[in-house]
Amino acid sequence: MDEVKPDICCQNTRFDATKPDLPTIEDIQKDNGETEETRICGLETLRQKLKELEDIEACLDEEFLLRFLRVESFDSLRAFQRLKNFYDMQEEMLEMFKHCSIDASVVQSMPYFWALPYRPKNNSALLVVTMEILPDAYKRNSCR
């Protein structure tokens, strides 16, 4: 008889954080076009463009901005557009929560997850998930 193996998403897996070695980091930076020059230039460009925006009080922290530069391979214009999209989405979600008032007892009585009755402009749904131990039957069904 064949042994039934559980789906990997249902297993309790722990990944310990490790710090990659210097050659690995250098290879990643090279593949991504990250040099001291691209970092400095990209950060200056992003900070300048963000300061020009009147309706956004942007975070100018180096590590925060580097995330956007790295995901766009140090293309400052694309990183800036991604940042603007981030702040637009943040504003949209904050606006949606301002008009959402649900009694805490109602939320606590809902099983596992539910969707807010309101939709943002792009008509997506905002799901709220309660963090608790799910029954085994639910785990098996959600992994397929």
From TrEMBL:
InterPro entries to which the protein is assigned, alphabetical: CRAL/TRIO_N_dom_sf
Source domain of life: Eukaryota
Protein name: CRAL/TRIO N-terminal domain-containing protein
